[in-house]
Amino acid sequence: MKIWDVITTANSNLMRNKGRTFLTILAIFIGSFTIIATSGIRTGVNNYIDAQLDSAGGEGYIEIMPEAMRDMAQSQMGFGGGDEPQEYDPKKNSAEMRAINKTDLAKIRKIKGVQSVKPARNVKAEYITSSETDKKFVISPQALPSDRINLDIAKGKDGKPDGRLVSINDPTPEIDLLPGYAKALGFKSDEDAVGKTVKLGVVESATMQVRTVEARVAGVLNKSVINMGRSWINTALEDKILDITYAKMPQSYRDQVYFATAEWDTKLGDKGLEDIKDGLKKLGYIGMTMEDEVGMVKSFFDAIILVFTIFGGIALLAASIGIINTLFMAVQERTREIGLMKAMGLGKGKIFLMFSIEAISLGFWGSAIGVAAAYLAEVIVNPIAADTFLSGLPGFELIKYDITTLALLILLVMLIAFLAGTLPARRASKKDPIEALRYE
Hints:
Blueprint: H1 3-14, H2 18-56, E1 61-66, H3 67-77, H4 90-93, H5 95-98, H6 102-109, E2 114-120, E3 127-130, E4 141-143, E5 153-155, E6 174-177, H7 181-184, H8 190-193, E7 197-204, E8 209-221, E9 231-233, H9 235-245, H10 251-255, E10 259-264, H11 269-282, E11 285-289, H12 290-333, H13 335-343, H14 348-387, H15 403-429, H16 433-438
Parallel strand pairs: 4-9, 6-8
Antiparallel strand pairs: 1-10, 1-11, 2-10, 3-7, 5-8, 7-8
Helix pairs in contact: 1-14, 2-12, 2-14, 12-15, 14-15
């Protein structure tokens, strides 16, 4: 019997008991579909986050915070501190020790590879409004830390996207509006808002009076996980807001900051970046790039996806037991047939191969149907998600498949099926032909 004949015979044998075969394939399908679907969601989420990261840029830009402040946050949130209370250490827990002063900035600037350092000041505004409306809206401005950041924009200066909207060193106070703000402020559209003037209400800390500062709308941002509800402003607007906030107060209040940003020489590569992080650590600081921050978001999603993948793996394990049961039953039912084939000269290897191919076929059809169903889910779910709960995140495809991953998954399921079918196939190949022919 030729190999092709063995393959066709093995597949036709599966149809002898359609119900049992169908249930076994269904079990494999459930496990495969679960793993494929979760893999597709993981790819979709990571692709979107990567796209957001690419649009935001951030190459050669690093955020700096005191290590003690990170430790305190972890302790308060219950991360990394264990179950026992932590002993007070004034060098780590004092608020004054956590602040970054001019001396600290000078030390950071001396680290090899660091090109510039800028304190990240606490900029606050009570509201934003315009001459087009009598309404006021809550806003969270944040100074653009570096010109190396490219924001995900809808409309920029002159109504045209230009990568970075606000110009960090432009003498005119500028702001990038978040999606929805343009129309809320009374402008006809995002394009109409560009170049117009808005007013921000700022509290004077010494008197608690609200004063206003004007700013030009440099552009409108797209909805993005990177923006995190922040409206970016340039240095000129930052200074005006700080002038109002700390008016009539000592300069030390304005100089006290808890975060800083630095630009580093990208020519140094990953090794240079690690050296900079090590240098910051020696000074008691933590350095994080945009990739590091987004990596934490990815880790969160990956942990969730891993749970569902484990469920899929459990389902495949159950399906493997089903394969063993199906083939053991087939060996039992076809004992006389096996004896006859052996009596006609079919060797142990061919018998083993025949039952192994039956197992592999079960794995192939179960996983192939799982892949087909997963692709159908992609076609149906993505448009629905884009029009409903993901409508605020343009370009986010909830499910996205990688062809190589799918092919490897099918091969993996076939391998699992082969291993599951090894024991029944071995039992069939070792049947004594005389005893098999006597079997009733």
